[in-house]
Every structure is written in structure tokens, then in C-alpha cells.
Amino acid sequence: MHEPYLKALAELFYPQRCVGCSRRANDVLCRGCYEALPVIERPVCRRCGLPTAFEAYVCEDCKGRDFGFDSARAPLKYEGVGESIVHALKYRGYTRVVERLVTPLLAGAVEGDVDCVAFVPLHRLRLMKRGFNQAELMARGLAAEMGVPVFEGLGAARRTRDQVELSAGERRANVEGAFRVGGPVEGTVLLVDDVLTTGATMSACAGLLSRAGARSVRALSLCRAC
Ligand SMILES: [Zn+2]
Ligand SMILES: [Zn+2]
Questions:
Q1: Kind of pairing, strands 216-224 and 76-77?
Q2: Of the ligands numbered here, which is closest to the C-alpha atom of 80?
Q3: For labelling alongside 127, which of 32, 87, 170, 193 has CA 20 to 30 A away?
Q4: Given this model, what pLDDT does residue 13 score?
Q5: Residue 12: what pLDDT?
Q6: pLDDT of res. 161
Q7: How many Å apart are CA 32 and CA 38, to the nearest integer?
Q8: Where are the domains of the chain?
Q9: How confident is the model at residue 176, as a pLDDT?
Q10: Residue 202 alpha carbon to ligand 2 centre in Å
């Protein structure tokens, strides 16, 4: 637990760099990169969260596709500065970026009340190697902001390949049976991850949460591939 503390301390003494362009900045993001955030503007598809021309309950993209979650939202597209932020979180776990930037972005994309916040787990070997789970950092920041508990019961049952290099079909197979859930779940769960691409990982976790008793599972990612 001391590593985030050391990071926070280091950030006090070393000049800050923008996570978007790596230039020196007064905060986690410089003004230029802030203005270049690839924000997903409404209207969006109420089911999958993709931008649409008109408010819709299903769109061309998600029509006929099965998701384990009831809805998906993301404040940013997975491109440009959005991609840089995800990269910074994944490889460096900047707690300050979560506090200053990611938590407000996520909170702004939440619609309605939720009972708890869950996160896509990392397998313990990957967690040991990386030292943190960026989805967990995001979920904890958001749960504190919203004043709801974090659901701790999702775990990784086995190691999976990095989804980045896989096709949609391979992604589904890669995450099948990869997660497990412990303990009962109640009410509406907000399931957090850094990026949603095909939705395979979020679907696998959401399906488990539903079977464990969740009334509704809503997926929330910082970015999504559009
Ligand atoms: Zn910048
Ligand atoms: Zn859709």
C-alpha cells in the first residue's frame, strides 16, 4: 500500500508533466490537451453508449449483439489524448491523474443511482507484476466521489492474453470462464474498466454479477473504441 503514497510524494517534488503530450504543465493535463480531449458528445445509444445522430435505445452497431451488461457509457473515445490517459494509468497508475481528471470524467458519465461500484479484476500474477490495477484505482476514486461502496468480490480465475492483439471472437473465448465472483451482489452495480472495445471483458464480468444477484449492471469505461 505504500507505493501510491511514494508516487504522490514524488509528484510533489518533481515537475509535473502533461499526460497527453509529456510537456511541463501546471496540472495533470495542459490546456491544449484538455481542449483536445476526445469527448463523446450526446446523443448516444442508450444501450451501448456509441454516439448516434438521435437518441436511441439501440443502434446499428449494437443491434443483434449480446452484452452481459444493461448499458455501457464512456466519457471519451479511445484515441488521441484519451488513449494517452489510459496508457498513463495502465503503465504508471498515476493516482493524481485518477483524482484530478479520471474521477470527474467518469462521474459526469454516470446516469441515475447505483448501489455499488465494481471493477474488472486483474489476475494476481499480473497484479504483482504491475503493482496496481488501473480499473480498481478508477473504481475506488469514483465510489468515494459517489459515496457508495466498492464491490470487492470479482476475481480473475485464470490468466488471459492481452485483449489488444485479439479479434472479437478470440476476445470472447479469451475471457470465457476467466473470472469468478464471490459473495452475493445486490441492487444496481456500476462496473468499471479503462477501455471498452468489443465489450467481451465487461460482458463476462457483468454476466457473473447478474447471476450472483445484481438487479442491473451498467458498464462504465473511461474510453471506448468508436
Ligand atoms: Zn499536453
Ligand atoms: Zn448501440
A1: parallel
A2: 1
A3: 170
A4: 56
A5: 60
A6: 84
A7: 12
A8: 67-224
A9: 87
A10: 15
49 three-state secondary structure: coil
Q: Count H helices, E strands: the chain? A: 9, 7
Is there a contact between 137 and 211 (Cβ–Cβ < 8 Å)?
no
DSSP type of residue 17: B
- Check: CB of residue 200 under 8 Å from CB of residue 175: yes
Q: What is the rounded distance in angstroms from the CA atom of residue 160 to the CA atom of residue 142?
A: 26
Query: What pLDDT does residue 165 have?
Result: 81
pLDDT at 145: 96
**pTM attached to this predicted model:** 0.91
**DSSP 8-state assignment for residue 201:** H
d(CA 78, CA 95): 20
Residue 114 C-alpha to ligand 2 middle, in angstroms? 21
Among all bound ligands, the one having the nearest atom to the CA of 31 is: 1
Please give the pLDDT value at position 160.
Answer: 86
| Residues measured by CB to lie within 5 Å of ligand 1, the ion | 18, 20-21, 30, 33
Least distant ligand from the CA of 29: 1
Q: Estimate to the nearest angstrom the gap between the alpha carbon of 197 and the chain centroid.
A: 11
Average pLDDT per consecutive 10 residues, the chain (226 residues; last block may be shorter): 64 74 90 97 95 94 95 98 94 88 97 96 92 96 97 92 85 90 94 95 97 98 95
Residue 130 burial (10 A CB sphere; 0-12, 13-18, 19+): middle
CATH topology of domain 67-224: Rossmann fold (3.40.50)
